[in-house]
Design brief:
The structure holds two protein chains of two kinds. By secondary structure, chain A is an all-alpha fold. Chain A is built from twelve helices and no strands. In chain A, helix 3 packs parallel to helix 5. Chain A starts with a helix and ends in an 8-residue tail after the last helix. In chain B, a hairpin with a 3-residue loop joins strand 8 and strand 9. In chain B, helix 2 runs parallel beside helix 5 and helix 5 packs parallel to helix 6. Chain B is of the alpha/beta class. Classes of the chains: A mainly alpha, B alpha/beta.
């Protein structure tokens, strides 16, 4: 008995050491903070992107944002501002192209995504910013600095404040635009607020996972949460939690298995989505058999 | 019952680019009226409602005393959206709450009352998408009731709705009319409109006729809007035959 207790105690100590070890490094503590902030912001906002069926636009912005960052670097603007400008341009151009009845939104994305992405890469090359390209494409969360954390914290705060003030109205717009207009809401303004927040979250998330993998952080947690939740606000809370926890779990994989942080985080998100699909399916089966109350 | 107009339009016109969708529509509706807006496809029925709400650019003037409540066509709503029936009805309370405030216990109590009114008290926690088409329409009407508007604008609320749901909805509309509200409903179902509405507006890109139901629901008047789409048998049966709707209605 005493031996078993001692064994358990040793196991617990080993586990705590395992969990605590990465926190001993300053760069890892900053990376954990960045991953939690970016994962939670992207997860929460991604719910709006998902339910409004704007996944293609989210994917597009995650790539074209490279042009925004390149422009900001060239013009000496804040990175967030460059990101917002290009996100708005991407959304506007997507709408304009999709407005031609012969084309569609996915055609617009298919044209704009590579074009603006290529323009961003070319601009970085021409202006000598090419050395930052790898960071932009794949992220560099282990190298985050105070300024990155401040941006991520401000974005997370903005998401909290906006959803607190106008969250229910944004949900109404997502559910029924005609009714939202009839109730007197400025739908275009609420769209612009959402787009701005998504652009800021994407710009901030570039540091965590990079442009190529960013869509995974933006859409994966909401997808997992949607499979578990029947109503919107629980879905937002679950998506934010999955985004934050996936970021942390991904960093543990990076520390112990020497996998790149961006791919590790996105692979954890994908695993969470697969688990959510299995759990969601089991919950629905249980609900259908009348054994359990519906999930939140 | 008051005869003061709660809803009026004067020379109301709407254009989409070079195409005139509505031209010079004028009418007045008083409190306690249940008006049906009739007309063939493309007559401008939805456009009229949206112009009355002020969500479409228009010329001419609209006067709407009090608050409007609106039920858009159900087909435009994403049924996969993660929301339950109670949540949809609560959306009707948002304008009263203003920014920042969430629905409270009083809002929930009122929403539950409304769900009972539309016969869905047991379905409040059910996903909106899991409800039948008729039940979904009842929920959307419930959302409009939660707005407690003085003028209720309904865009084809009975299209594709099963018989029991349609009966519940018509009872609800009549109760609202009796409570002194102005109810305006667009519909393709001529016979139903003649049965339940006390006023008919006949549209075909302009106001073709406007008056009490017995004045408008006449073959010679209906033919002015529907022309060849309207077949009359024995002067009694209206059979609307157009590309999208085949309503075999045995009207009054």
């Amino acid at each position: 008995m005493t031996g078993a207790a001692a064994g358990l105690g040793e196991l617990a100590t080993t586990a705590l050491d395992w969990i605590g070890e990465p926190w001993g490094s300053g760069f890892m503590r900053r990376a954990f903070a960045e991953a939690v902030l970016c994962g939670a912001s992207a997860g929460a906002l991604g719910c709006f992107v998902l339910v409004r069926r704007l996944s293609f636009l989210g994917e597009s912005i995650a790539h074209t944002i490279v042009l925004g960052v390149a422009l900001a670097l060239v013009l000496g603007l804040p990175l967030g501002l460059g990101g917002v400008l290009v996100a708005v341009a991407t959304a506007g151009l997507t709408g304009a192209i999709a407005g031609d009845r012969r084309l569609s939104a996915d055609t617009a994305t298919g044209i704009l995504l590579p074009t603006l992405f290529a323009a961003g890469i070319a601009l970085l090359a021409v202006t000598g910013g090419g050395r930052r390209l790898d960071d932009l494409l794949f992220g560099s969360i282990l190298g985050v600095e105070e300024a990155d954390l401040v941006l991520a914290a401000l974005v997370a705060l903005a998401v909290l404040v906006v959803l607190g003030v106008a969250g229910k109205e944004m949900v109404l717009v997502a559910f029924d635009r005609a009714a939202a207009r009839a109730l007197g809401y400025r739908v275009a303004m609420l769209d612009a607020v959402l787009l701005t927040l998504v652009a800021l979250a994407v710009t901030s998330g570039l540091r965590a996972v990079g442009s190529i993998l960013l869509a995974g952080l933006l859409l994966g947690p909401p997808l997992a949460a949607r499979l578990l939740c029947r109503t919107f606000w629980p879905m937002v809370a679950v998506a934010a939690a999955i985004g934050a926890l996936s970021g942390m779990a991904g960093l543990y994989l990076t520390w112990y298995l020497a996998i790149g942080a961006g791919p590790a985080i996105v692979l954890v998100v994908a695993t969470a989505a697969a688990l959510a699909a299995a759990v969601g399916s089991a919950l629905r089966a249980r609900e259908a058999s009348g054994d359990g109350a519906p999930a939140g | 019952m008051s005869t003061t107009p709660t809803l009026s339009a004067s020379e109301l016109s709407v254009s989409f680019g070079p195409r005139e969708a509505l031209t010079a529509v004028s009418f007045e509706l008083s409190a306690g009226t249940f008006a049906g807006v009739l007309g063939p496809n493309g007559a401008g029925k939805t456009t009229l409602l949206r112009a009355l709400l002020g969500t479409l650019d228009h010329r001419g003037s609209v006067r709407l005393a009090g608050r409007p409540a609106y039920v858009p066509q159900a087909g435009a709503i994403d049924t996969a959206f993660p929301v339950d029936a109670l949540g949809v009805v609560l959306m009707g309370r948002y304008p009263r709450l203003g920014w920042r405030r969430r629905p409270g216990s009083e809002d929930r109590r009122r929403a539950l009352e409304i769900l009972e009114q539309v016969g869905l008290s047991a379905q409040g926690r059910m996903s909106f998408g899991a409800l039948s088409g008729g039940q979904r329409q009842r929920v959307l009407v419930g959302r409009a009731l939660a707005q407690e508007g003085d003028v209720i604008l309904l865009d084809e609320p009975l299209t594709g709705v099963d018989g029991p749901s349609a009966a519940v909805l018509l009872d609800v509309f009549e109760a609202q009319r009796r409570a002194g509200r102005t109810v305006v409903m667009t519909t393709h179902d001529l016979a139903q409109a003649a049965r339940v509405c006390d006023r008919l507006l006949l549209l075909n890109r302009t106001l073709v006729a406007d008056g009490r139901t017995d004045q408008v629901f006449r073959p010679e008047v209906l033919r002015r809007a529907y022309s060849g789409e309207l077949l009359l048998i024995d002067g009694q049966t209206a059979l609307l035959d157009d590309a999208h709707h085949h309503d075999h209605d045995h009207g009054s």
